[in-house]
């Protein structure tokens, strides 16, 4: 019993230490956003009075347009990725067709290709299609990349669903679309939530591709705009930290609310029926 207790204390202590390493940088970022440059240099790691909430007003005034851009881009990526991956995942899980295994393995192999290898060809294609500095260039190419992992997750989950449900629906005369819409999708809500969250995070944090393809201010996402926030020397870098906090809030809120379905989705296809 004593040995188990010591092991338990060691495990909990390690987890608390990891939690501290994860949260403390966020804490420093938040408190630094409320300081002037002098306060930051004098006391970086703890609060300093007075608190300067005006930094958030200055930062928000410079990034609110880019936040709207990021919301549009992220919504487009999530929607398009869901459409592609759910249809493809259902097809791979339910139908038998020539070249199915080869196509699926080829798609999985594409996950191993470093993104930087296709960056230049992707840029050239987008340039020839006149898509640069548009919302489309930040939605179409990234969605094709996000859909690969999403298709794998959804295929694995749908293969774990009881085949008897689909067989009964077929006997009752339901079409493939009705089976997909009324049976497969409702039973796949956990994995769809996981796909939504992973796509949302990847899209919101996508930095390299927008940097080379959509740097115009009218379509610039917030992840690029935060590096261009300016203020007086006295207020910097507190205003920069305020911009980072504002840009992080949407993801923190969504992930906090959706943690349970995210975990359920990751484990949904672990056991096949």
UniProtKB/TrEMBL annotation:
<keyword id="KW-0812">Transmembrane</keyword>
<feature type="transmembrane region" description="Helical">
    <location>
        <begin position="179"/>
        <end position="201"/>
    </location>
</feature>
<dbReference type="Pfam" id="PF00528">
    <property type="entry name" value="BPD_transp_1"/>
</dbReference>
<feature type="transmembrane region" description="Helical">
    <location>
        <begin position="136"/>
        <end position="158"/>
    </location>
</feature>
<feature type="transmembrane region" description="Helical">
    <location>
        <begin position="241"/>
        <end position="263"/>
    </location>
</feature>
<keyword id="KW-1003">Cell membrane</keyword>
<dbReference type="GO" id="GO:0055085">
    <property type="term" value="P:transmembrane transport"/>
</dbReference>
<protein>
    <submittedName>
        <fullName>ABC transporter, permease protein</fullName>
    </submittedName>
</protein>
<dbReference type="InterPro" id="IPR035906">
    <property type="entry name" value="MetI-like_sf"/>
</dbReference>
<feature type="domain" description="ABC transmembrane type-1">
    <location>
        <begin position="67"/>
        <end position="258"/>
    </location>
</feature>
<keyword id="KW-0813">Transport</keyword>
<feature type="transmembrane region" description="Helical">
    <location>
        <begin position="102"/>
        <end position="124"/>
    </location>
</feature>
<feature type="transmembrane region" description="Helical">
    <location>
        <begin position="67"/>
        <end position="90"/>
    </location>
</feature>
<feature type="transmembrane region" description="Helical">
    <location>
        <begin position="7"/>
        <end position="27"/>
    </location>
</feature>
<comment type="similarity">
    <text>Belongs to the binding-protein-dependent transport system permease family.</text>
</comment>
<keyword id="KW-0472">Membrane</keyword>
<dbReference type="GO" id="GO:0005886">
    <property type="term" value="C:plasma membrane"/>
</dbReference>
<keyword id="KW-1133">Transmembrane helix</keyword>
<dbReference type="InterPro" id="IPR000515">
    <property type="entry name" value="MetI-like"/>
</dbReference>
């Amino acid at each position: 019993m004593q040995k188990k207790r010591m092991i338990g204390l060691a495990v909990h202590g390690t987890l608390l230490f990891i939690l501290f390493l994860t949260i403390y940088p966020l804490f420093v970022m938040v408190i630094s956003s409320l300081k002037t440059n002098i306060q930051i240099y004098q006391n970086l790691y703890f609060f300093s009075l007075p608190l300067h909430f005006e930094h958030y007003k200055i930062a928000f005034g410079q990034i609110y347009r880019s936040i709207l851009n990021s919301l549009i881009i992220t919504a487009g990526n999530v929607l398009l990725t869901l459409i592609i991956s759910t249809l493809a995942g259902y097809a791979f899980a339910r139908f038998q067709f020539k070249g199915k295994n080869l196509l699926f393995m080829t798609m999985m192999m594409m996950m191993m290709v470093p993104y930087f290898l296709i960056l230049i060809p992707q840029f050239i294609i987008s340039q020839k299609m006149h898509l640069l500095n548009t919302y489309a260039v930040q939605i179409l190419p990234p969605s094709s990349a996000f859909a690969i992992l999403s298709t794998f997750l959804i295929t694995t989950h749908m293969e774990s669903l009881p085949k008897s449900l689909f067989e009964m629906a077929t006997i009752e005369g339901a079409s493939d679309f009705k089976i997909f819409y009324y049976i497969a999708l409702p039973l796949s809500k956990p994995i769809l939530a996981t796909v939504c969250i992973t796509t949302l995070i990847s899209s919101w944090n996508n930095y390299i591709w927008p940097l080379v393809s959509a740097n115009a201010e009218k379509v610039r996402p917030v992840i690029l705009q935060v590096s261009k926030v300016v203020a007086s020397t006295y207020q910097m870098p507190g205003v920069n930290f305020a911009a980072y906090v504002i840009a992080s809030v949407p993801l923190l809120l969504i992930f906090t609310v959706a943690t349970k379905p995210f975990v359920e989705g990751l484990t949904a296809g672990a056991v096949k029926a």
